[in-house]
């Protein structure tokens, strides 16, 4: 998979991609992530990427021209399955969307800033608008990093057996069951005996029951 991220703040985006699972995915050649600084697609001396909104009102708007240049240049080089715009008024990200995007080959992610982008960018280029929750961030960069993490860990070969995504919370619309590690008794708090029994069919059944119980207690909406 190839991901091209368009941003005015590429420096904000580096570190999540240079640690742990995302770093390993890049090193294994399973994902390529490219950052594009919108200011590199401006013409004037001031490298202007934003301007006041027509009709008045507080807040700057990202201009269409540099975004058009950047997206058009990328699209001339290869075909893209999606142009995603990170915005609080998009569709809220969930595991289903992450699964779907993990099957794509080439994806562009556009990060909004200030009051967002000129509406014509959304009309002309964007195929999907994604929010990571009902709150407003200063820009789309951290949201894009969250999206990339959720998607990249699902790419075949990124996770090994021990970290398999198949047992993740949300994978079957269920929360994951509780997990324990050594010691089996900590200050009188015991690990459930079944987990020490070695009876794997029974353990599997216990985990399913726990997942269901946890989901009905904490997130009954998922069971509807
Ligand atoms: N940009 C600002 N807030 C955002 C959010 N909640 N999700 C995605 N992009 C955003």
Could you walk me through the main structural features you see in this protein, from its secondary elements to its overall organization?
With 224 residues, this protein is α/β, with parallel strands linked by helices. The chain folds into two domains: 2-152, Alpha/beta knot; 169-223, tRNA(m1g37)methyltransferase, domain 2 (Trp Operon Repressor, Chain A), CATH 1.10.1270.20. The protein contains six helices and nine strands. The chain has helices at residues 20-27, 64-77, 95-101, 119-124, 141-152, 200-218, and strands at residues 2-7, 32-37, 50-52, 60-62, 82-92, 106-111, 128-131, 185-186, 189-190. A five-stranded parallel β-sheet has the order 2-1-6-5-7. A two-stranded antiparallel ribbon has the order 3-4. Strands 8-9 form a two-stranded antiparallel sheet. It catalyses: guanosine(37) in tRNA + S-adenosyl-L-methionine = N(1)-methylguanosine(37) in tRNA + S-adenosyl-L-homocysteine + H(+). This is tRNA (guanine-N(1)-)-methyltransferase.
């Amino acid at each position: 998979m190839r991901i091209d991220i368009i941003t005015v703040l590429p420096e904000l985006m580096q570190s999540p991609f240079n640690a742990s699972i995302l770093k390993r995915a890049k090193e294994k050649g399973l994902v390529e992530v490219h950052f594009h600084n919108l200011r590199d697609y401006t013409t004037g001396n001031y490298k202007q990427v934003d301007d006041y909104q027509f009709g008045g009102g507080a807040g700057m708007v990202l201009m269409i021209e540099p975004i058009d240049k950047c997206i058009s240049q990328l699209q001339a080089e290869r075909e893209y399955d999606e142009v995603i715009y990170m915005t609080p008024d998009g569709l809220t990200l969930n595991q289903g969307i992450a699964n779907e995007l993990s099957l794509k080959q080439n994806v562009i992610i556009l990060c909004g800033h200030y009051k967002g982008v000129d509406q014509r960018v959304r009309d002309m280029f964007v195929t999907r608008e994604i929010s990571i929750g009902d709150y407003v961030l200063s820009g789309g960069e951290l949201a894009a990093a969250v999206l990339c993490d959720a998607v990249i860990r699902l790419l075949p070969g990124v996770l090994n057996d021990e970290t398999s995504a198949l047992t993740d919370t949300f994978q079957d619309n269920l929360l994951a069951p509780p997990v324990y590690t050594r010691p089996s008794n900590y200050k009188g708090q015991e690990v459930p005996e079944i987990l020490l029994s070695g009876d794997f069919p029974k353990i599997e059944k216990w985990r399913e029951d726990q997942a269901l119980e946890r989901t009905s207690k904490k997130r009954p909406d998922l069971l509807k």
